[in-house]
């Protein structure tokens, strides 16, 4: 235990996947955690959530009961021809667990949230169970006194405040960050298809493939269909992207009135008839408004910080949004643990910023490129021997090795050593082993 360690009162603003994750990480580190959620969790619409090995590893370290989430363990990524549906390329995940120590899980959002909530609020595991306060919408934060004011009139103090309140974050504004953003040239409709309904209709049972499957996304075009199975394969979650018309989607909100099947299908007259048939029996069709945020200059100020979409909103095309929030939570759990925290909250948050900001900014940038070029997507970015492979900059491609070989403990120790002006002895640079050759040709630690 580091000298000076003390138990903190932590206020987490936002009770979504990121908020529950950081509650787990910080309660396990020995702190008293209260989660403030603006809603009562009623009326959520379900969609799939991707959790690759770099996220799954923390679920296991935190002893989350992953089986409660009823995941599909992915075995491959498949890229299909837009019109025929024939496979164009595949990235196999057969050796994924062997290489990276953990599987690639695909969850239904409600199941994943319930799984994390049970772990955060439950008696099992290390630490005192976190507490959840619903119908507490954050109005403002006073950084001098570290008090949170809620719209219901309550004002509460915490030693540490974590803003996990999503893309419309109030905490972000309190930290003095005012995003430079623009609405994306691409928009999305999401729909759910029940596997049994597809089988009854005589359509392909995509759940048998245990895969993330893609139609389109090539040649700079915005049209793309992404299929992800979840609920143990019982539910097929479709993200349907298309070019935004001028003025569209400005006022769209997730969870509002459902859209019609006809509106969904009108965008895809030439789409493979099998997946077109799936979309034709889709339910819970919801718009997803997509915004592009320029990276923020920092993630922390005084004794408050940002996590997940509050700190680094990104396009969904690397399937890393949830994983980045989980990694954020893991970083805070480590930094405030007995092994690393010396009682200086502001210093710990400065290390959090140094560790997290470069990594999330890199994923943000790669996700924006993958919106119109599927070859930039982690996994497919390794298939560089294919005749149609083309990326903007081969030296800047985000690879599966960079994501999954990353050691956050080493990254934190390197950054802490620099701040404390002591020598760092491990052969790691920013969490990656020196000498490791990434498939984009970069050798970690090599001179430019």
Automatic annotation (TrEMBL):
It holds the Pfam family DAO. Residues 154-364 form the FAD-binding domain. Residues 10-122 form the FAD dependent oxidoreductase domain. The keyword Oxidoreductase applies. GO terms for molecular function: FAD binding; monooxygenase activity. Keywords: FAD, Flavoprotein, Monooxygenase, Oxidoreductase. Signal peptide: none annotated. It comes from the Eukaryota. InterPro entries: FAD-bd (IPR002938), FAD-dep_Monooxygenase_BioMet (IPR050493), FAD-dep_OxRdtase (IPR006076), FAD/NAD-bd_sf (IPR036188). Belongs to the paxM FAD-dependent monooxygenase family. This is FAD-dependent urate hydroxylase-like protein.
